Task: inverse folding
């Protein structure tokens, strides 16, 4: 790959144009563009700027100064590039590069950051969010507290309570926004509607009962003041938390038991006995996730067998598909054989079908008690194709062979046909046997062409999510592991399962696994490129 | 370079083979000898012997038939079970025991399973992603192919390096990024098609750019210069000349991107939450997450309908796709 770039640069680099030539070129460009081009450009940039200004407005209102600044700088640079008369390459590269930087480069860096945090279920937000959510979840009604007549109101889909306090004043608030005074219309003693809010009808209240009973509108910014909750949508009572938050000391105290939970730097309030109050909050934990993944025996063991299986799966998949494809290419590369075209079309069908569908179909056919293979082909046998740890691995390899051999067949066919016939004739004249011709002449030439493809295929299978996930879902499940991992999981499916399935999501650990894959892929690529370079020199 | 290598599966390669198909080496030698003497030569018909035929080509047909059976039996199975009006996996085992379109009707009309919606979502997402990929990649490839600027070499190498780390490695970060975007701009964040398409476009500058870059390099620069002399600007050269001449490679890139997007499960399953927003890959996988209780023949009907457009496109353009795949990876 790199050689191509070198060649082109040395072969084609034109002499640097003089400033006169450049000026002439830019005048010619401007003259040829025409009004239509200019108009399209102006409209596109105008739209972009409008979006950028809107985004800036939203971000600044929300107080996200850093992101706002980045958006402003990017927008300014884009405008500068497209209004400049120079910067021609940048005009063509910018659109793709913006997406590349945000959704490929940035997210990889961000993965690196998450790997050093405890992000996941129970550690999702900031400490303030954790405090308010803890308080809200431990609310208890204050005995003999006054009744507040309320009207349930809605603003842009967010429910709120319009409450009338015992003095007859109206207040409105939502889950996130504490009660504040509001001008309201009264019906008797009860405030029934307020500006900017839509009052819910009785039918609406019935329809959204679940949401309404979950509402807890705080009295003030201090979470210790408690909140207003309504069991029926018409009258509310004061609830206070059984937890008491002491901001200065950074502790939570359970008033009923007197237990003090303090912030000991693990991202959750922890009592002296080690009990954690969840949800906690997100903190950076250094190399904790990596250390945990490698040293905790319950996690280290799955990591070892998953890594070994990932390599085995990728290597065996490449080897099996390549050899079957090569064998078929040799078999069908005979001019005397009739109907080769039809065989070819029928055999590449597995490759043309979207792989997620094929894997799902195979999963159905390999079902232990109802599948086609056991019931029909094996006459009612109960072969645990997908449920036995070892047999499941074999099944995965068979299905991946089915999915991948047509590609290798096509590739090898092309490579074989591109080897000149004279080589074979010359060797035959020199007295070489067919096997020697193949092994000493055709195979080396073929390998030079397909070696980069084999490496690409290895890289693809290393992260072949679909085959594993759709066929076995990584299973059978390893019941000893605390994370949802199974015996046919490869690294990428393990990342997905740790992050997004199971009882608790552990983004930090999943990102740490991602980083491990990242390092493995990087090392393999470096070695592979060195090797292919030496192969290219052979040619 | 891709351009200088013969593209496998091109008509020339196959045609050359088929002309010689009837004559084997021995008769060819005779034909050459006969031809040199000047008289019209009629090859003598040898009596058919099974043993000789089997050693020469017969065993190849045996291999071919075995492989075709291996390749086709899951496909036959799914077509058969899609035509089976019965719903279960067990009921699908007797191939073609009953023929009817009940399961097609079921999957298309079941209110619990918004299959037509999934289908439309997939086509829209994959279609827009394909067009966007071609456009963004084409722009970048044009600048790399036709312009010389500082950072060009660095740009080409960094595209190679970045594409080695597929986006799905960063699926956690993508999810968290999109969920924080949806805090501010719900229209392009989680659970939106635009958000998912934007994520896919992040991978637009990758192997595709190299494919197009290689092809653009084969278009002679003299064409550009002639156009320039006639007064065309860079944009006009790109849109009206280069893109037209490079149509085959654009089709290949669009198709590869389309097929990739149809197949993509990991990111789509994380970003699209509502059932009616999901794609076929996500929806159908959830549908048969437990094959024992799933409506297997309805799933089969859905699978057949989902596979048809992709298979048709693939077979229609297979020689270009195969050529593109090989060339792209060789680069």
Result:
């Amino acid at each position: 790959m790199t050689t191509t770039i070198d060649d082109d640069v040395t072969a084609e680099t034109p002499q640097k144009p003089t400033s006169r030539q450049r000026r002439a070129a830019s005048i010619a460009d401007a003259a040829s563009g025409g009004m239509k081009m200019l108009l399209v450009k102006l409209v596109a940039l105008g739209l972009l700027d409008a979006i950028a200004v809107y985004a800036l407005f939203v971000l600044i209102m929300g107080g996200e100064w850093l992101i706002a600044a980045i958006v402003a700088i990017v927008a300014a640079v884009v405008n500068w590039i497209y209004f400049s008369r120079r910067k021609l390459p940048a005009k063509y590269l910018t659109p793709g590069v913006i997406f590349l930087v945000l959704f490929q480069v940035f997210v990889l860096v961000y993965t690196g950051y998450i790997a050093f945090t405890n992000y996941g279920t129970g550690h999702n937000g900031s400490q303030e969010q954790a405090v308010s959510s803890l308080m809200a979840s431990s609310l208890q009604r204050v005995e003999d507290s006054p009744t507040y007549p309320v009207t349930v109101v809605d603003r842009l889909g967010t429910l709120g309570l319009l409450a009338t306090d015992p003095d007859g004043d109206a207040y409105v608030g939502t889950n996130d926004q504490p009660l504040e005074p509001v001008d309201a219309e009264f019906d008797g003693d009860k405030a029934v509607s307020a500006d900017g809010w839509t009052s819910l009808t009785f039918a609406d209240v019935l329809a959204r009962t679940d949401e309404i009973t979950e509402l807890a509108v705080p009295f003030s910014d201090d979470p210790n003041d408690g909140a207003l909750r309504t069991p029926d949508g018409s009258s509310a009572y004061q609830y206070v938390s059984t937890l008491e938050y002491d901001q200065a000391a950074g502790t939570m105290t359970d008033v009923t038991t007197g237990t003090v939970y303090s912030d000991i730097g693990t991202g959750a309030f922890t009592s002296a006995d080690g009990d954690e109050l969840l949800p906690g909050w997100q903190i950076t934990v250094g190399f904790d996730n990596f250390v945990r993944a490698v040293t905790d025996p319950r996690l280290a063991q799955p990591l070892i067998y998953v890594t070994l299986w990932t390599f085995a799966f990728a290597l065996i998949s490449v080897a099996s598909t390549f050899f079957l494809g090569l064998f078929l290419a040799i078999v069908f590369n005979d001019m005397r054989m009739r109907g080769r075209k039809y065989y070819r079309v029928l055999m590449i069908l597995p490759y043309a079908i979207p792989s997620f569908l094929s894997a799902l179909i195979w999963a159905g056919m390999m079902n232990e008690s109802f599948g086609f293979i056991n019931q029909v082909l094996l006459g009612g046998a109960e072969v645990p194709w997908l449920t036995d740890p070892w047999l499941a691995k074999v099944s995965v390899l068979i299905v991946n062979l089915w999915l991948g051999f047509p590609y290798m067949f096509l590739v090898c066919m092309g490579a074989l046909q591109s080897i000149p016939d004279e080589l074979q004739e010359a060797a035959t004249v020199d007295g070489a046997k067919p096997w020697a011709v193949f092994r000493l002449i055709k195979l080396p030439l073929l390998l030079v062409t397909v070696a980069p493809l084999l490496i690409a295929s290895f890289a693809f299978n290393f992260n072949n999510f679909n085959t594993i996930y759709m066929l076995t879902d990584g299973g059978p499940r390893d019941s000893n592991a605390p994370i949802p991992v199974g015996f046919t999981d490869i690294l990428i499916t393990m990342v997905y399962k740790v992050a997004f399935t199971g009882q608790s999501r552990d983004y930090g650990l999943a990102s740490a696994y991602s980083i491990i894959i990242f390092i493995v892929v990087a090392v393999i690529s470096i070695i592979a490129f060195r090797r292919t370079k030496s192969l290219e020199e052979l040619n | 370079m891709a351009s200088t290598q013969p593209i496998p599966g091109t008509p020339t390669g196959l045609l050359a083979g088929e002309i010689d198909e009837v004559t084997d080496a021995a008769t060819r030698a005779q034909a050459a000898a006969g031809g040199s003497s000047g008289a019209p030569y009629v090859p003598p018909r040898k009596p058919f012997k099974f043993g000789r035929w089997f050693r020469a080509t017969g065993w190849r047909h045996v291999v071919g038939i075995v492989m075709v059976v291996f390749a086709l039996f899951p496909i036959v199975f799914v077509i058969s079970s899609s035509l089976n009006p019965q719903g279960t996996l067990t009921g699908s085992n007797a191939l073609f025991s009953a023929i009817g379109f009940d399961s097609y009707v079921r999957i298309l009309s079941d209110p619990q399973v918004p299959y037509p919606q999934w289908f439309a979502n997939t086509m829209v997402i994959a279609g827009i992603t394909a067009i966007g990929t071609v456009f963004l990649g084409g722009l970048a490839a044009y600048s790399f192919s036709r312009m010389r600027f500082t950072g060009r070499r660095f740009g080409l190498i960094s595209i190679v390096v970045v594409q080695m780390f597929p986006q799905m490695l960063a699926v956690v970060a993508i999810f968290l990024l999109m969920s924080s975007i949806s805090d501010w701009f719900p229209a392009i964040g989680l659970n939106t098609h635009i958000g998912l398409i934007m994520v896919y476009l992040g991978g637009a500058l990758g192997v595709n750019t190299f494919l197009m870059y290689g092809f653009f390099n084969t278009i002679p620069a003299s064409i550009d210069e002639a156009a320039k002399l006639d007064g065309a600007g860079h944009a006009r050269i790109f849109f009206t000349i280069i893109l037209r001449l490079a149509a085959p490679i654009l089709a290949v890139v669009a198709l590869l991107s389309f097929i990739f997007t149809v197949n993509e499960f990991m990111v789509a399953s994380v970003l699209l939450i509502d059932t009616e927003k999901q794609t076929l890959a996500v929806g159908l996988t959830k549908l048969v997450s437990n094959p024992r209780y799933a409506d297997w023949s309805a799933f089969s009907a859905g699978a057949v309908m989902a596979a048809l457009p992709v298979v048709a496109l693939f077979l229609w353009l297979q020689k270009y796709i195969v050529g593109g795949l090989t060339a792209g990876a060789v680069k």
In short: Chain A has 19 helices and 16 strands. Chain A touches chain B through 117 residues (CB under 8 Å).
